Amino acid sequence: MQDEEYKIDVDVAKLVVIGACSVLILTVILLGTHGYYLKVANEQHALKFNDSVSPLVKLVNEKAELNLNKYYLLDQATGTAQLPIDRAIEVMAANKGVAPTTQPLGR
User: Fold this and answer.
1) What is the pLDDT of residues 46-71, one digit of tens each?
2) Do 100 and 94 meet the contact criterion of CB atoms below 8 Å apart?
3) What would you measure as the largest C-alpha separation in the chain, in angstroms?
4) Alpha-carbon distance 75 to 79, whole Å?
5) DSSP alpha helices (H): ranges in 1-107?
6) Fewest C-beta in 10 Å: which of 2, 51, 68, 98?
């Protein structure tokens, strides 16, 4: 029995194909997982930051809201005044979209 020669039969081409396919499958899995992670992280970031309102923007909007609902003389020399927004809508609707004027006609 010691004189018997053992022959190791290895199909190298088959091993190379199996190895290449394994590397390719592993690469696809890793890239897919990473892409999914980035998608979820981006969605979470958007939910956290894109829907939030800056305190400065909130303050400016509050001030603008206050100014929309009061009478204010803009220019005394020309007689230009600011109306509350609700009143301005009523005036524009009554005049069929033509802004009222204090100037005499023909000027």
Assistant:
1) 888 877 778 898 899 888 888 778 88
2) no
3) 127
4) 6
5) 12-45, 55-68, 85-94
6) 2
First to last CA, the chain: 126
pTM of the model: 0.42
Cβ–Cβ < 8 Å for 82, 72: yes
Q: Are 81 and 73 in contact (CB under 8 A)?
A: yes
CB 91 within 8 A of CB 100: yes
At 56, list the tokens: 């400065």
User: For 8-49, how does the pLDDT look when each residue is reduced to its tens digit (9 = 90+)?
Assistant: 788 999 999 999 999 999 999 999 999 999 999 999 998 888
The tokens describing 34, both together, are 């990473």
Contact between 74 and 81 (Cβ < 8 Å): yes
